[in-house]
Amino acid sequence: MKTSFLKSLYFIYIRLIGILKPISLGVRVLLIQDDKVLMIKHSYQDEWFLVGGGVKRGETLAQAARREAMEEAGATLGEMELFGIYSNFIYLRSDHIAVFLCKDFTFSGKKDWEIDTIELFPLNTLPDNIAPGIRHRIEDYIAEIKPKDGFGKW
Prior knowledge:
The chain is an alpha+beta fold. The chain is built from 3 helices and 10 strands.
C-alpha cells in the first residue's frame, strides 16, 4: 500500500515538476569496486539506479555527488572524475545530468527514507530492471566509452 501510494505520488510529482521547474541539474555516480557497481532501488520506483539526485542551491556538482552518495548509500567518496555530462528531454523537462566515476569509496549501507535496497552487482551479471539511462552509462563504462567532447544524450 505504501509503495503504491509513493509510486502514484512520484508519477504526479515528475509531471508537475516539468511545469514548475522545466530545467534541472542533477548528478549520478558510477561507484565501481572490484568489478562491481553499487546501485540503489528507491521505495517509489521498480528499477535500479546509480546513487545521485538534484544539485542544491549553492552546491557544486562534486559536492552534490558526495552528498547524494552519503544520503542514499552511506558512501564516503575518495577521488572522483567526471565521466560525462548528459542531457535528457522528457516530460516537458530539460534534464542535465553530470555523471562521476569513483573507484575509491567506502559504504556503510546506511540509507535514507527513499531507498529500499542497496546492492553491489558484478559488472558481468547486472539485473534486468535497471533504468535505461543508468544501463547505458554502465555499458559505456564497461566499453570504455565516454561521450564525445564530454557531452552526450541520456
